[in-house]
Amino acid sequence: MRGLHPVRGDRLPDTAGASGAPIALDAMGGDHAPGEVVAGAVQAVREHGVPIVLVGSPRPIHEALLRHDAAAEIPIVRAEETLAMDEGALASLRRPRSSIAVACHLVRRGDAAAVVSAGSTAGVVATGKLRLKGQPGVLRPAIAVALPTLPRPTVLLDAGANAEVKPEMMVQFAHLGAAYAETAFRVGEPRIGLLTIGSEPGKGNKLTKRAHELLSAAPGLDFAGNIEGHDLLTGVVDVVVTDGFTGNVTLKTLEGSVRYAFSELRRTIEESRTARLGGLLQRRRIRDLRGRLDPEAHGGAVLLGLNGTVVIAHGASHAAGISAACVLAAELAAQGVVPRIGERLGTAHRPHRLW
Amino acid sequence: MRGLHPVRGDRLPDTAGASGAPIALDAMGGDHAPGEVVAGAVQAVREHGVPIVLVGSPRPIHEALLRHDAAAEIPIVRAEETLAMDEGALASLRRPRSSIAVACHLVRRGDAAAVVSAGSTAGVVATGKLRLKGQPGVLRPAIAVALPTLPRPTVLLDAGANAEVKPEMMVQFAHLGAAYAETAFRVGEPRIGLLTIGSEPGKGNKLTKRAHELLSAAPGLDFAGNIEGHDLLTGVVDVVVTDGFTGNVTLKTLEGSVRYAFSELRRTIEESRTARLGGLLQRRRIRDLRGRLDPEAHGGAVLLGLNGTVVIAHGASHAAGISAACVLAAELAAQGVVPRIGERLGTAHRPHRLW
Concatenated DSSP letters for B144-186? Predict the structure, then answer.
């Protein structure tokens, strides 16, 4: 593939060609980069067959690969700069050769199918917008997160890309989220819910009242009406639409409450010997439940609406979270979420690449 | 007391005089009125020594009192109309003699110390604003809810009275919440947190960025800075300030997630015999934990900023929830939350009543 510079080896590993274009993984983004990012890449390649290229500073990446005996399996693309975890939009403009910018560039050129990064959300969003640009017709890209509902996940967006939104953007978020549900979760006709403060149509603030009107009238959307905070984990809709401020506070509240409920439970159980005994008998099942509800298990947040798939893993991700993000990115790219968004927004054009 | 019309008996029960003015309890508000409301009143009187008057339609109230053999203990004040659960502000204007309006009237006249209702929140807020009016200097009253944090509850407001707010109102909300924490939970200098989408001061939407500036500069407030959704149940601050839309979505999300975590846990445990065995050994402790996290246990939401204490119990409250709301109302009135708000806002005047 044009543009890849493997640091070791004369030819690219077979996996890159056979399974489609690789995932461009930002090796330098995140609290545990590059060590855990590389470990996650190895896991994605070996356990899930997802082709990866690691983008960043070659030496530490190579050393990490050696620890897994994987230097021949995963190519490296050089990027000498890195955005720090607290750098945001302006820093992105100043660092055209940051690992995240180079990863986006690979997607734009067709040398990678998607970008994955555990770097700062603000930095990834700004770099993505600048380097990949919005799809035709997209007012603003949005961050979508899959909530661990049953029988299948619920997509929540915008989870934080846009702190201020206009009602028209909310209609687009519905289409972005529906495309995600269709491609990643095979939902035939995703049901859309609008997150607000009452079930009756007249309830809410100015933004949600107007968004309700627009969503009700929008063609191509199965709008199920208003939903409230306590409906989020019931699986009653497939996509939940909200503004980025409310979405981010809500998502963090969800994560914090579930974590709180489990830690209170553990504390309660450990306070008594009888209860502890009971705890031993359930340990495996509770661990499985915690795993299902663990944000790291779901592959992270997806930035939808750009000319390329971008997955943002939790900053604190370890190998498992990185691997899950790569698997999610590969699935979204393979299933064509970007063309699907184009179709939904009525601005689809024949893609000249299959991913 | 002037104005009370006991349906039975020639003199008022001693409890009304001895413990201070009674709580005016809207007997007709809520999903399980008047039966569960009356049961809750009986519980508050007998188990907590809180004097109550029941406001509403005399016949069904009296019949319910007879079932508890309590007709001589709790007076009734007649109000022939009732706001339906789905009626809101306009209905309040049309029904000057609704049970909630009459209850507010008792407080205004000094014949009751506080109002408690499980009726529709919109109806209670509208009636309260109309009949009790805002305290001098209060831009908007706010609904405050106590989150079950340890070692003591955290006050969250505005939990839904104002879907749109201005930054100046957020500063007032901080004072209202601080007064609640001081009076109900004896917190000496309540720490205030601003709910937003990032810990750094520059993060948030326009409203929260401006509110941050105002809160930082406001005298008489111990402003601890921004907090995020996952901090809500950590007890890191005493008061969390937000707008009514975000507050309501957040509160419902909290309630829904905790409920979800417990039901998932129960389901997980019941799927296996071994785990079930473990569950038997913990049943009591888990039940206690669920009780602590149960919204009904906390006495409901308090409408702060009016010339009188108003507590809104959950619409689905049973007797225990009603009783807890009455206990909370009595405590707030006795501890003087209304005068304390006046002092904080710099508009305190010597109250001519002690409640």
Answer: EEEE--SSS-EEEE-SSS-SS--HHHHHHHHHHHHHHHHHHH-
Cα–Cα distance for residue pair A258/B66, rounded to 1 Å? 44
Q: Are A197 and B274 within 8 A, CB to CB?
A: no
The better pLDDT of the pair A8, B24 is held by B24
Other Cβ atoms within 10 Å of A188 Cβ, number: 8
Interface check B163 vs A, CB under 8 A: yes
| Alpha carbon distances (Å) from A7 to A11, A21, A54, A73, A117 | 10, 19, 11, 12, 21
Chain B touched by A232 (CB under 8 Å): yes
pLDDT tens-digit series, residues A115-172: 999 998 889 999 999 999 999 999 999 999 999 888 889 999 999 999 999 999 999 9
Which tokens is B233 given? 């149940």
Partners of A278 on chain B (C-beta within 8 Å) are 277-282
- In which band, very low, low, confident or very high, does the pLDDT at B146 lie, cut at 50, 70 and 90? very high
Q: For residue B52, which of B92, B79, B23, B78 has the smallest C-alpha distance?
A: B23
Interval A30-82: pLDDT, tens? 999 999 999 999 999 999 999 999 999 999 999 999 999 999 999 999 998 77
Residues of A in contact with B256 (CB under 8 A): 229-234
Interface check for B217 against chain A (CB to CB < 8 A): the answer is no
Q: Any chain A CB within 8 A of the CB of B228?
A: yes
Kindly list the residues from chain B whose CB atom is less than 8 angstroms away from the CB atom of residue A254: 229, 253, 257
pTM (two decimals): 0.87
Instruction: Compute φ and ψ for B237, nearest 5 degrees.
Output: -130, 170
> Best of A203, A253, A293 to disrupt the B interface by mutation (most B CBs within 10 Å)?
A253
Sheet holding A114-117, edge to edge: A76-78, A52-56, A23-26, A114-117, A309-312, A301-304, A142-147, A154-157, A239-241, A191-195, A222-227
Lowest-confidence segment of B230-234, B304-308, B340-344, B350-354 by average pLDDT: B350-354
**Which of A253, A259, A278 faces B250 most closely, judged by CB atoms?**
A253
Distance of CA A336 to the CA centre of its chain: 15
Q: Cα–Cα distances in Å, from A290 out to B70, B239, B268?
A: 49, 30, 11
B18 in contact with chain A, both atoms CB, cutoff 8 A: no
Of A206, A249, A260, the CB nearest to B195: A249
C-alpha B149/C-alpha B237 separation (Å) is 10
Greatest CA span in chain B, whole angstroms? 65
| Contact criterion met (CB < 8 Å) for B229 and A256 | yes
* C-alpha span between A169 and A191 (Å, rounded): 18
pLDDT tens-digit profile of B30-51?
999 999 999 999 999 999 999 9
For residue B165, which amino acid is it? V
Tens digits of per-residue pLDDT, B4-21?
444 433 333 333 333 589
pLDDT tens-digit map of B149-168? 888 899 999 999 999 999 99
pLDDT at position B22: 97
